[in-house]
Amino acid sequence: MHHFAYRDGRLFAEGIPLEKIAQEVGTPFYCYSHATLERHFQAFEASLGSVPHLVCFSVKSNSNLAVLSVFLNQGAGLDVVSGGELYRAMKAGADPKKIVFAGVGKTVREMEEALRAEILLFNVESEQELLALDRVAGLGGMKAPVALRINPDINPQTHPYISTGLKQNKFGIPFDRSLDVYRQAKALKYIDPIGVHCHIGSQILEVQPFVDTLGRIKALVKKLREESIAVQYLDLGGGLGITYEDEVAPPPSEYAEALLGELGDLDCTLIFEPGRVLVGNAGIMVTRVLYIKRGPEKSFIVVDAGMNDCIRPSLYGAYQAVWPVAQREGEKISGDVVGPICESGDFLAKDRLLPPLEPGDLVAVMSAGAYGFTMASNYNSRPRAAEVLVKGTEQWVVRDRETYEDIVQGESVPEALSGADSGDGR
Ligand code: LLP
Fold first, then answer.
1. What is the pTM of this model?
2. Ligand 1 pocket check: which of 197, 273, 277 to mutate, most ligand atoms within 8 Å of Cβ?
3. CATH number of 4-31+280-401
4. Which entry of 41, 132, 230, 276 is 20 to 30 Å from 379 by CA?
């Protein structure tokens, strides 16, 4: 599954002991395994066989330029959701003809940038956005390649914060409206409706919701073709889940087989936007134990990473395993792994039976490769962690730990407020 494993009681990332990286880079840090990234991408690719397809890695899950490069080297495309992600994609050397752009709130500037880059597909989420894109494309004398994001109203049975394909979610165009909006799109001079897009949620552990979605979309594609709206691309989004604790996640082969079965002979190029399934278990976050507060009921293991570094446990109550970097015999500790932030919600793990730990020990928060660093913030003015990529016995810092200067970069105090020389006694 991944390449983080113990050798003689010490946790390694591929061929490198994590304590060595901690000594050189400090803590906390994110560590990604090149072999795992590659393997996950290849497994996904291979499951699609000879069906025309494009796997667009979802940049929001892990946007580090080096991670993007690993996938680009494998022939991946990218799924972006903002001008900033498009910038990263281009900087990492992506082929714009393999970039798809989603998001409910694209700005004029973002549309211009993506048109100029000549991306493969705008995944348009509303009628107003469609009209705006037509206007922007017209001003530039271009035609925008478009897939409408259809909200299929399918329950993906995942955390409500990360389910996106239900009527009550803000995403996409309601299924019942889709035919009308396609007709509208076809009539617009600077819009080229060539695809259908959908994405129903994230961390989905059943294939059936995906299959049901495809069933609905397939019927739509047939209707569109009857009206000579030539759909070439079917973008099925991302969302395939992974094992964090003991969930059984369908392997990409099972997911692909079920989808290809449902697709039948519908002649389309399939696009996928996997994020978590490619990077989730290819990354960990390593943090050092500062203090152990032993209490009557439970103990608190205070570490040097907090919710600003890894917010999933606090935000979604998500489970991420915590492994000791050095295994040790002794009495286990029951308690919470908490960070230094001034919030009771600042925890990385709750009510766990943890291995024996002491101040100075390192622990690894597992399955942190997706929505880990990308959701990090500077809350409490904490510099964001370093990111390290390991390949065999090589390691590279692929993002420096931020400095205090980085944190205040861009801020300024207006002269009128700078007390020092105001001279008026205030
Ligand atoms: N495509 C679109 C349009 C998306 O909105 C997303 C994720 C993906 C693809 C990739 O989904 P994935 O394969 O990674 O499930 N922060 C949350 C997850 C939010 C997902 C947002 N959209 C978490 O940490 O669980």
1. 0.96
2. 273
3. 2.40.37.10
4. 276
Is 98:77 a contact under the CB 8 Å cutoff? yes
Helix (H) or strand (E) holding 55: strand 53-58
Domain ranges of the chain: 4-31+280-401, 33-278
Q: Is the CB of 162 under 6 A from ligand 1?
A: yes
Task: Give the pLDDT of the chain (426 residues) as one tens digit per residue.
Answer: 789 999 999 999 999 999 999 999 999 999 999 999 999 999 999 999 999 999 999 999 999 999 999 999 999 999 999 999 999 999 999 999 999 999 999 999 999 999 999 999 999 999 999 999 999 999 999 999 999 999 988 887 777 766 676 677 778 899 999 999 999 999 999 999 999 999 999 999 999 999 999 999 999 999 999 999 999 999 999 999 999 999 999 999 999 999 999 999 999 999 999 999 999 999 999 999 999 999 888 899 999 999 999 999 999 999 999 999 999 999 999 999 999 999 989 999 999 999 999 999 999 999 999 999 999 999 999 999 999 999 999 999 999 999 999 999 999 999 999 876 555 555
Q: List the Cα angle 1/335/361 in 5-degree steps.
A: 65
Q: How far apart (Å, rounded) are the C-alpha atoms in residues 20 and 360? A: 14
Q: How far is the CA of 203 from the centre of ligand 1 (A)?
A: 8
186, with CB counted inside 10 A (0-12, 13-18, 19+), is middle
Active-site annotation holds for 342:
yes
What is the distance between the alpha carbons of residues 220 and 31, in angstroms, rounded to a whole number?
Answer: 43
Q: Which CATH superfamily is domain 33-278 in?
A: Alanine racemase (3.20.20.10)
